[in-house]
Amino acid sequence: MEICRKNAMLHPGQNNTLVYYIVVNDLKDFANDFACEIYGAGVTIVETGETEIVSDVTFSKNEIFSLIKLLSDHLVTPVAVSDVVSDWLCQ
C-alpha cells in the first residue's frame, strides 16, 4: 500500500521520486485458530526501479506508519532502508 512519494536529488542534476509503502503479510496458525497481520516497509526509486522491502517489522499499525514517516522525512533510499529499520527496531 503506497503511503507517500517524495522528490529528491540523489545525484547532482538528477531528480528522483521515492515511493514509500507498507507491506502487509498474514500470519496464520490454523492449528490454534490464530490469525493476524504483520507489517513491513518498502522504498522504490521510480526512475530506476530500485526497490528494497523489509518484511515482518511490527504487528502495530501505528508503529509502521511512524516508521514510514521517519523513512520519508529523511528521504531514506532502498540501499539504506534495511539499516534504518534495524536501528529503529533496536531503539
Please supply descriptive tags for the structure shown above:
4 strands, 27% helix, 51% strand, single chain, 4-stranded antiparallel beta sheet, alpha+beta
Structure, explained:
The structure is a single chain. This protein has 91 residues and is α+β, with helices and mostly antiparallel strands. The relative contact order is 0.20. Helix content is 27%, strand content 51%. The chain is elongated and about 55 Å long. A four-stranded antiparallel beta sheet has the order 1-2-3-4, with helices on one face.
The shape, in one word, is elongated
Please provide the ordered H/E string of secondary-structure elements.
EEEEHH
Q: Based on helices, strands and strand pairing, what is the structural class?
A: alpha+beta
Tell me the radius of gyration: 15 Å
Distance between the termini: 25 Å
Helix content: 25-40%
Could you tell me the mean pLDDT? Answer: 93
Sheet having the most strands: 4 strands, antiparallel
Strand order in the largest sheet: 1-2-3-4
Strand and helix layout:
Blueprint: E1 2-11, E2 14-29, E3 34-45, E4 51-58, H1 61-73, H2 78-89
Antiparallel strand pairs: 1-2, 2-3, 3-4
Short description:
Helix content is 27%, strand content 51%.
